[in-house]
Design goal:
heterodimer; A: Serine Threonine Protein Phosphatase 5, Tetratricopeptide repeat; two-stranded antiparallel ribbon; about 5% strand; globular; B: about 1050 residues; 22-stranded antiparallel barrel
Chain lengths: ~500, ~1050
């Protein structure tokens, strides 16, 4: 080829290759990328709200599959205890829950896998917020508040994890691919982190009275304090528990609703005694596989047959018998034969088509209040009252007892009983000074059971107070094994074996 | 004396030389086989730019520059001939027809190659075969025509898509080939008028597709459209046909009496009393035939014209068409209409510069009915609807079923209320310029655009089949209180700029070299917008506009819209080297980059090599005079598959909608955050293919054989591998999986002439095996294919098995007695455990594969394979005097289908007639279980009971044509006129019980699942082709 040709080819070659490299840099215009999010205060707020979003997960897709697994708090807190048994359409309905109820559950269960995955997903969003919000230029007070909210929610998730599984991986920032495989951290360290997060949160969250009406449901000083008190109680650190409970009680922020039954109605949502309540609403169009703003608990705990529910969480006979004669709280907690179930009809065995004598009442909603559009079953409106003021008062009583101050303990119990009797002096006599020592402790435990019944507390209370082996022996509880649930086998495999299994599973 | 002679010679030489400066040579060019004149033959003085063409009578005249000039005569379809002038003034030439088509030029990527030289595996389809088969979609014309190319339709509804698999399914995400039309990669070829197509090449192996780099992994379908030729007298053709379609089969279902008997039996087996309405089954008679209600005969019609002409320096081809097809379900409501217009022009500007423009405009209108799902498709509903309900009430209004209280609603009503319209305007155009830098070095630059504007309008009128809200029996799906309108607009565009340099040289030692080097840039943009409002003032489609909504509260309107974009760049070079006539070697390298790939893997390199050995001149071949041509070829190459990757999958997008509710007013607050992890390593799927093949022409062109063996490995397939839960975010797809396709392809063609009858028979067959070889570390098998009626996922993809095979329980007959059912189990720890604790006499025996005393999901096994053992096509043509006859059949053997059309999850739907064979007592049936409303043994769980053999053979096209005799034509001053009658899908031979065995795919991982498939029609057609 002659020179002229070579020149031309050379020119072309250069021209072709030198074309813009930025041609391949195409930016997404819908939704931001992680790289260019977190620019301003609005982003910070959105990121914080994303932290709250996971709290509502009850029926979740197992990661990477279309399998849905319900993993309600009350599955573990109520059904695995002596308060209630599973229910459903029969033994074949939620078979894994049946196994756990009888303490023969295993690590292949979807229940524990879903619980694990959702908790860490919630923690991941909190870590992301805690990591990126400090770098945003915005009002310092708002920033601290968002960070406090993310800390509180992270502490809440770790609280759930450590009470369910014991030692768990402690992840405090988003993981790079080389870090995906993590091992477990001792529960004492996890508790320490929970306390640190909650302490920070207490310092920077507003009081409930400072919230505007449109902010109801956001984390508050009271919520962080109450959770911190519980954390101390679970570790049997009674002095700090007592101090914080007292803080909350003297803050003037919370009061007991004079009408116990009102707490669990629609008008009782976010009531005077509500310290930490997970919000749900019925008009978001959620569905199976995509739970938006509604709860499934309403339909799951409602009776079958004409009442259209799935019939889970059936109160046990011994739970009903725990209530003292005439205790008004029984009729607010349990439906018995002959009771009117709201606007859905009268409870009878024929109407439900099942042999159960009792049904849980605290999550019952009327048919007329159901979701205005879409499938009502994933769209219940009942909030999850995770921490009530009564819970704090009873912890005050319990911690006071352990610190030797029985008088204070009795006082607190009597506050609860006074509200419960609702003005009828004939009922629920106050504890007198004759109730002391182990009897007083029993009275405190009794009060917890009937005050907070069917709210997901019982199993964890039994475990933390060391009574599980005796009370749940009939169901197969073995000390040293069943205080915690099995780590999901899938997670152990994916961690490359770094995550060890709990004893006995 | 000697001196005088020298002087005279010298003078002569001067005279001759002087004379030959511009000496004219003339002559006639004829065809060797019949002596007719050949117009349009190119006559070139070799080594110069001096060229001319023969005229209509085959005459030419050329001024040669020297006496010893050689003239090259070439014409398409004929073997070129070099003739030395040797001082003559008249050179007449007779050209031999290129019977074996060895000189045929085949379109390969970025150029052409002679068939005799191609070293890759390229299948070609004769355009005559495309236009002879009246089809709507070009993909339908490809079905069965090329070995290894499997085309299945995804529905029989007019305007619906097809899926094409070239050499098996090579990806879990996107297995469709790349379509390149006139050099522009297109998303689909539904906008093409089949009559506009000049050639179709299918690049099957890695070497031929390598020049398309990261997008050629699933094979490439290259289509070129017709252009005119130079010096061509204007030619006008008009083609038209009219056809009537009808359903070719109804499924045998229960009639009302049989339905009544079975329902009563089913209820009593569950402890329920019979329904009053079914108390006397024999009085119910035949009942309603729902299939008859929805199926009808539907017409289709096509008009197409084309105009081509050419001058010495330009050519033009213009074409237009109108096509309309109604659906055999729904008639007008399933209608598809298409208008196309195309103009392709070429111009020469001087000797060295050429330009061309291709412009195509298509308008598509489609009215679509819901299909291919088991809850609201018209066909699905018609199969499941109970025969005791009439389609209409006595007063003429549509009736609802009191038996079925669910999503199986009246399909006739559904058709009447359907208002789902898709409109697309599509413009595809390109402009190119080509410049000859040197005589054998060309530079070409092409700019093209593919613009598609689509709109979608869905109007859902309000209606009530009951007597109003107080009708307690009215099922939820038979009324809609509030009407609603959804409008969507999307715009999709592709811009491409390509520059290539081509160098072509014949070396002095007889070798030849072609080099193509180029650069290509492609940018794609897509935007969409949707709006919805309800409560429109009128329930009439005519007034369905968003502004007519009465919903002042703005409670339910919604709008959404977004945009996405991607870009590709590629640089490539291909070298073809021909060693004499015997060897041709080819090597290609392409470097591709895409905005879709992660930052760590932006660019990839795709090499390939191939060689072909033309053994024809070898002594042991040449001595066998029955072998005309024998070529052996081999190739290896790597291509990529980038089309299954989303535009932004490599990054972690932050989504809104992670909401929470605050406040006593229960207001949702918007939360935002990433949902997936990011994957900066994301890249294309790599397809590595090795191919060996043989081409042979035997017996004077009477027999032609092509055989290929290939192994295709796809690595780096995208799959979502689970991450540890502690990561928190959901995993994104990573390139970890692998699959393998391997097989053999044969194509055989025989043609002959016996007396006045000339005929040809051809066939192709391909045996392809498919297997997943890796799913990544920790990669779980993927379960897909949810079927409502069976209540489970039926397809499974795992290592060592074909993609998306059918997975379920194996059955072993029916328990004939209760004792037999109770005795079915195993000894576990000394205790006898019943494997099927709820079974009784008449229930299905499910095999407990692992013997663990429990029939659960661990006992699921492979129950069917949707991939065929082999696919084939056979084509026969014959002509006798003015008659021509064509028969084309196509089939698939060994593929299984899953019949999921019936809703066993609802107890009261209709059933196939086979349900009458149910077990009613000991010894009555070993195949069909007892019928029961409660089904405690879950007899209707996913098992081999629902898998059927889907092998079929279809007589796709039978055609008889008559060309009017020449003398008649001359009187009418028409060039040629042919009339024909034809039938499509005349017969289908299959054992499949469903409506159509050609059930396609719904996504790459759901193959062969019948959910109430809209069947293809049998059509009778009459048509006419006229050339003016």
């Amino acid at each position: 080829m002659n020179q002229k040709t070579t020149l031309i080819i050379g020119f072309l070659a250069v021209a072709l290759v030198a074309c813009k490299q930025e041609f391949l840099e195409v930016q997404p215009l819908v939704g931001s990328t992680e790289a260019n999010f977190f620019q301003n205060a609005d982003d910070a707020e959105s990121a914080t709200i994303a932290c709250y979003n996971n709290l509502q997960q009850e029926v979740t897709n197992i990661q990477g599959s279309a399998q849905l697994a319900p993993h309600f708090r009350w599955y573990f807190g109520d059904i695995c205890s002596d308060d209630s048994h599973k229910g459903g359409s029969g033994d074949g309905d939620e078979p894994e829950l049946f196994l756990f109820e009888n303490f023969s559950g295993n690590s292949s269960s979807k229940l524990v896998l879903a619980e694990w995955q959702v908790a860490y997903r919630g923690i991941a969003y909190c870590n992301l917020a805690l990591d990126r919000i400090p770098g945003i230029e915005m009002d310092q007070q708002d920033k601290d508040r968002f960070l406090a909210e993310a800390s509180f929610i992270r502490a809440y998730w770790y609280f759930n994890l450590v009470t369910m599984f014991g030692d768990v991986p402690l992840i405090l920032s988003n993981l790079a691919p080389s870090e995906y495989q993590q091992g477990r951290t001792a529960s004492s360290e996890v508790w320490a982190q929970i306390e640190a997060d909650l302490t920070f949160a207490r310092q920077n969250l507003p009081r409930r009275s400072e919230l505007s009406i449109s902010e109801t449901g956001r984390a508050t000083w009271g919520a962080a304090s109450a959770l911190l008190a519980k954390a101390h109680a679970f570790q049997e650190e009674w002095q700090p528990c007592n101090d914080i409970c007292l803080d909350v009680m003297t803050s003037g922020e919370y009061f007991l609703d004079p009408d116990y039954a009102n707490i669990f109605t629609e008008s009782g949502e976010n009531g005077p005694g509500s310290i930490w309540e997970i919000q749900y609403m019925n008009a978001s169009g959620g569905n199976w596989g995509n739970q938006l703003e509604g709860t499934f608990t309403n339909v799951f705990q409602r009776a079958r047959g004409q009442f259209g529910g799935y019939g889970f969480n059936i109160p046990e006979q011994n739970f009903v018998e725990e209530f003292e004669n005439g205790d008004p709280r029984l009729s607010a907690t349990v439906f018995q034969e002959g009771d009117q179930m709201g606007d859905r009809g009268v409870f009878s065995l024929e109407a439900t088509g099942m042999p159960h004598l009792y049904y849980s009442k605290k999550f019952f909603i009327n048919a007329s209040d159901e979701a205005p559009f879409g499938d009502p079953n994933p769209n219940g409106y009942s909030n999850d009252r995770v921490i009530r003021y009564a819970d704090v008062i009873l912890f005050h009583a319990e911690s006071a007892y352990h610190l030797g101050d029985e008088g204070l303990a009795r006082n607190s119990v009597n506050i609860i009983r006074s509200r419960a009797r609702g003005g009828n002096q004939a009922l629920l006599a106050s504890l007198g000074t004759d109730v002391t020592g182990p009897d007083l402790l029993d009275a405190i435990y009794h009060e917890r059971r009937v005050e907070l019944g069917m709210e997901g507390h019982r199993f964890f209370d039994l475990v933390r107070t060391g009574r599980a082996a005796t009370e749940l022996a009939d169901w197969g509880f073995v000390a040293g094994i069943h205080e915690v649930f099995p780590i999901p086998e899938v997670e152990r495999t994916l961690s490359g074996g770094l995550i060890t299994q709990n004893n006995g599973y | 004396m000697k001196k005088l002679l020298i002087a005279i010679n010298f003078v002569f030489a001067i005279m001759v030389t002087a004379f030959s400066q511009g000496k004219a040579v003339t002559g006639v060019v004829t065809a060797a086989e019949d002596g007719t004149a050949l117009p349009g033959v190119t006559v070139v003085e070799k080594g110069t730019q001096n060229a001319t063409f023969t005229d209509l009578d085959g005459n030419y005249s050329i001024q040669v520059t020297k006496e010893e000039a050689t003239l090259l005569f070439s014409f398409i379809g004929y073997t070129p001939k070099n003739v030395s002038v040797a001082g003559k003034g008249t050179v007449n030439v007779s050209l031999e027809m290129d019977v074996a088509g060895l000189e045929e030029v085949i379109v390969v990527g970025y150029g052409n190659q002679k068939r005799s030289k191609i070293s890759g595996a390229v299948g070609t389809i004769d355009t005559k075969e495309i236009t002879s088969l009246p089809v709507l979609r070009t993909e339908q014309a490809l079905q069965g025509r090329a070995a290894g190319v499997q085309v299945t339709q995804n529905s029989g509804q007019p305007g619906s898509t097809q899926s094409i698999r070239i050499r098996g399914t090579g990806s879990l995400n996107n297995a469709e080939p790349l379509y390149v039309i006139d050099g522009i990669p297109s998303a689909g070829i539904d906008y093409l008028n089949p009559s506009d197509i000049a050639s179709i090449s299918i690049l099957k192996d890695a070497a031929s597709a390598a020049i398309y780099g990261a997008r050629g992994g699933n094979g490439v379908v290259l289509i070129t459209t017709k252009t005119g030729s130079k010096n061509q007298k204007p030619q006008i053709t008009y083609e038209s046909y009219y056809g009537m379609q009808e359903p070719w089969k109804y499924m045998a279902l229960l009639n009302a009496e049989e339905y009544g008997i079975l329902m009563n039996e089913s209820r009593s087996a569950a402890g329920l009393l019979p329904l009053e309405s079914l108390a006397n089954p024999s009085a119910l008679g035949e009942g309603e035939d729902w299939q008859d209600e929805i199926f009808q005969r539907a017409p289709m019609m096509n008009h197409s014209f084309s105009f081509t002409s050419g001058t010495e320096s330009s050519s033009t081809a213009v074409g237009g068409s109108y096509f309309v097809q109604d659906g055999i379900v729904g008639g007008e409501k399933g209608r598809f209409e298409r208008y196309t217009f195309r103009i392709n022009t070429r111009q020469d500007a001087g000797d060295k510069f050429r330009m061309g423009q291709n412009i195509n405009f298509t308008h598509l209108d489609r009215s679509a009915l819901a299909e291919n799902n088991e809850f609201n498709s018209v066909v699905g509903r018609a199969l499941n609807m109970d025969p005791t309900t009439d389609a209409r009430n006595p007063d003429g209004s549509y009736a609802y079923s009191t038996m079925i209280d669910s999503d199986i609603a009246n399909p006739a009503n559904q058709i009447a209320l359907n208002n789902d319209f898709w409109t697309t305007n599509r413009f595809v155009g390109s402009v190119f310029g080509e410049y000859d830098i040197l005589s054998n070095l060309k530079f070409r630059s092409t700019m093209s655009v593919d613009l598609s504007l689509g709109s979608h309008r869905v109007f859902s009128p309000s209606y009530d089949l009951g007597i109003g809200p107080n009708d307690p029996e009215r099922p939820a799906y038979e009324w809609r209180e509030v009407n609603g309108l959804m409008l969507g607009e999307n715009k999709w565009s592709n811009w491409q700029w390509e520059n290539t340099v081509t160098y072509d040289k014949e070396l002095s030692n007889g070798d030849d070299v072609q080099v193509v080097a180029g650069y290509s840039a492609l940018s794609n943009l897509s935007t969409s917008f949707y709006g919805f409002r309800d409560s429109l003032a009128s329930n009439d489609l005519q007034y369905a506009y968003l502004n007519n909504s009465l919903n002042a509260q703005e409670q339910a309107p919604s709008a959404s819209g977004g945009t996405t974009a991607s870009a590709f760049v590629g640089q490539f070079v291909r070298l073809n080297y021909g060693l004499g006539d015997a060897w041709s070697l080819s090597g290609t390298v392409r470097r591709d980059g895409s905005s879709r790939f992660g930052v760590n893997n932006r660019y990839g390199i795709f090499p390939s090599l191939s060689a072909a050995w033309n053994m024809t001149e070898l002594p042991w071949v040449a001595e066998k005079d029955w072998i005309d041509f024998l070529k052996f070829r081999a190739s290896w190459g790597q291509n990529g598959n980038a089309d299954g990757i989303g535009n932004f999958d490599y990054t972690s997008l932050v989504y809104n909608g992670l909401n929470y509710t605050f406040g006593s007013e229960q207001v949702q607050a918007n939360g935002a955050g990433p949902v997936n992890t990011s994957n900066p390593d994301l890249k294309w799927e790599t397809v590595e293919q090795t191919n060996v093949g043989i081409d042979a022409d035997l017996y004077d062109g009477k027999l032609n054989i092509v055989a290929d063996y290939f192994v295709k490995n796809t690595n780096d397939m995208l799959a979502v591998v689970p991450l540890p839960g502690v990561v928190g975010f959901l995993p994104s797809a990573t390139n970890v999986a692998s699959a393998k396709n391997s097989g053999v392809e044969f194509a055989v063609n025989h043609r002959n002439q016996v007396g006045e009858v000339s005929y040809s028979i051809g066939g192709n067959i391909a045996f392809i095996r498919n297997e997943v070889t890796d799913l990544g570390e920790g990669g779980q098998p993927v379960a897909t294919g949810s079927v409502f009626g069976i209540g489970d996922l039926v397809a499974y993809t795992e290592i060592g098995q074909p993609i998306a095979y059918f997975y379920g329980y194996e059955t072993a007959g029916i328990f004939q007695t209760d004792e037999e059912a109770a005795a079915y189990g195993t000894e576990i720890d000394g205790e006898f455990v019943r494997a099927l604790p709820n079974a009784q006499a008449g229930d299905v025996i499910f095999v407990d594969q692992d013997g663990d005393g429990d029939v659960d999901s661990d006992d699921k096994v492979m129950i069917g394979n949707p991939h065929p053992d082999f696919t084939y096509g056979i084509n026969m043509e014959a002509s006798y005097k003015n008659f021509d006859f064509t028969l084309f059949l196509q089939g698939s053997q060994g593929n299984d289908l899953l019949n999921g059309a019936f809703r066993y999850d609802l107890n009261t739907t209709n059933l196939p007639i086979a349900a009458l064979e149910r077990w009613t007592g000991e010894g009555t049936s070993d195949l069909y279980p007892r019928i029961s409303h409660s089904d405690p043994n879950q007899n209707n769980r996913i098992s081999d009971r629902f898998v059927e053999d889907g092998s079929y053979m279809r007589i796709k096209n039978v055609q008889l044509g008559y060309t009017l005799p020449d003398n008649v034509m001359q009187r009418l001053k028409i060039g040629k006129c042919r009339v024909y009658v034809a039938a499509n899908n005349l017969f289908t031979f299959t054992q499949y019980s469903g409506l159509d065995p050609e059930v396609g795919t719904r996504g790459t991982l759901e193959i062969g699942i019948d959910r109430g498939f809209y069947p293809s029609a049998r059509t009778f057609i009459a048509g006419i082709n006229v050339n003016f």
